[in-house]
Amino acid sequence: MVTFGAITLPERRRSAIVAAAIVALVVVRLVCAAVIPLSFEECTYWVYSQHIGAGYFDQPPIEPILIRLGTTLFGNTEFGVRVIGVLLALPATWAVWRSGTILFGDTVGARAALYFNLTLVMAAGSIIATPDGPLVAATAFLLLTLAKLLTTGRAEWWLAIGVVFGIGILSKYTMFLFAASILVWLLLVPEMRKWLLTPWPWLSGLIALAIFSPTLWWNAEHSWSSARFQFGRMVVHEWDPRYFFEYIFGQIGMATPAIFVLGAMGLAASFRGEGGSLGGRVLINAMVWPIVIFFAWHSFHDRVQGNWPEPIFIAFVIAAAVAVERVKWDGGWRRLEWWSQRLAVPTGLGIAAVIYLQAAFAVVPLGQADPTARALGAGWKELAAKLDDVRMQLGAPIVLGTDHAVTGWLAFYLPSHPPVEQINERIRYANAPEPDPALFRGPIMFVCSGECDVQMLHKRFTTVDHVATLERTRRGIAIQEYSAYRVSGPIGSPLDAP
Fold first, then answer.
1. Rounded CA gap, 30 and 34, in Å?
2. Which site in 87, 168, 264, 398 is 20 to 30 Å from 471, CA atoms measured?
């Protein structure tokens, strides 16, 4: 018999019930993906996807490629942008399930798969089309290939490890941190050290490098812009510990509190030698601690966004399942595990439901205080229709901005889909052709949020006229104010150099 929350199930039925529950959760996310407006990041990646390249200013190419695939199949809609990312939950969940089963037994695998889909990493993160989705999926398969290497001892698995690692780097550079995880694992597990004296790990690294090489070449041809943007965050300008506790509480939220408690207990038990074999226990810890420590260090000099450490939750949910299925607790720890186990499912579902309802329907009209309204494009369809009316009245064939968030939203949501260009940061659009100069010979519409840099406009154009101020609203409550200007007569090039 296996217990999930307060329900005890016959062991022979657990796999089917868990699988059905996971599929149901994915279906719910697909519905949410269709009705929740896009964030500005998603719109930016959609813009990138219009001109596929080997790299982009701030990310490797996998996410724009997935968006291009989704919109090719389902059109330039919210669903089209997000559908592939949501569906990645299925193979990622299978890889988590198999990894947990291989390392610690089938009951651990099933529970880990369920917990994985209850974390905000999947409940919310998989709906939003960002590079974190394919990175998490690649991490799940990296753990699976490492688990197969441990249990089979077959050298061919190093080839698969290299392929998965390379795909992971093409998703997000965070994947590089798992090189430290693999090295720590090989060094700490006696039976695995032998691999360091063979060519297999190094061949695996060469395969990963070969897969990543197009993006490496793209960076070399574009002043290493993507690498400098991401790795420049590692430079310490000033130590400031105020972000550390924000980082910790953010990860508790991403895991959901009950699963976080169980995951922490599972990791602690593994340090005491409980829960499974040495190779499996060290592997799970190695897939968590290097990234946790790296971002903890980062939090002492800069903010860590909640989604950055997301790949740790692949191993973390397996540790949580180990805490329930493979470790015997005593005293207060037993009560803590008992309550956490029973709260894990309802808490995860409850938090997800609140987020979905608020993001889709603004059940509580919070206005500017609503993070789902600010981050997601709440009210942008209505605002874009009004801005498009202004543009047509001006007779402007092109729209300009200086904020990639605003230009991304404009590009996706303006009903007539005119050319939209960002004046500055042109490296973001290095894969796209420069706009036709004829577009700048007549009136141009410029849009900005909040206070516009009018002085900058006067330096670039001979005529600058304010024509409209419009609000992005949700349920009648203002979220953000936007201004539209009619500009004409470019002084020199209207856009910065590519």
1. 6
2. 398
> Is-above-0.90 flag for pTM?
yes
> Of 343, 317, 388, 301, nearest to 110 (Cα)?
317
Amino acid identity, position 141: F
**How far apart are the C-alpha atoms of 83 and 74, rounded to whole Å?**
9
Q: pLDDT per position in the chain (498 positions), as tens? A: 455 554 555 666 888 999 999 999 999 999 999 999 999 999 999 999 999 999 999 889 999 999 999 999 999 999 999 999 999 999 999 999 999 999 999 999 999 999 999 999 999 999 999 999 999 999 999 999 999 999 999 999 999 999 999 999 999 999 999 999 999 999 999 999 999 999 999 999 999 999 999 999 999 998 888 888 877 766 776 777 888 999 999 999 999 999 999 999 999 999 999 999 999 999 999 999 999 999 999 999 888 988 999 999 999 999 999 999 999 999 999 999 999 999 999 999 999 999 999 888 888 877 777 777 778 899 999 999 999 999 999 999 999 999 999 999 999 999 999 999 999 999 999 999 999 999 999 999 999 998 889 999 999 999 999 999 999 988 888 889 999 999 999 998 999 987
Domain ranges, ordered by start, for the chain: 2-361, 375-490
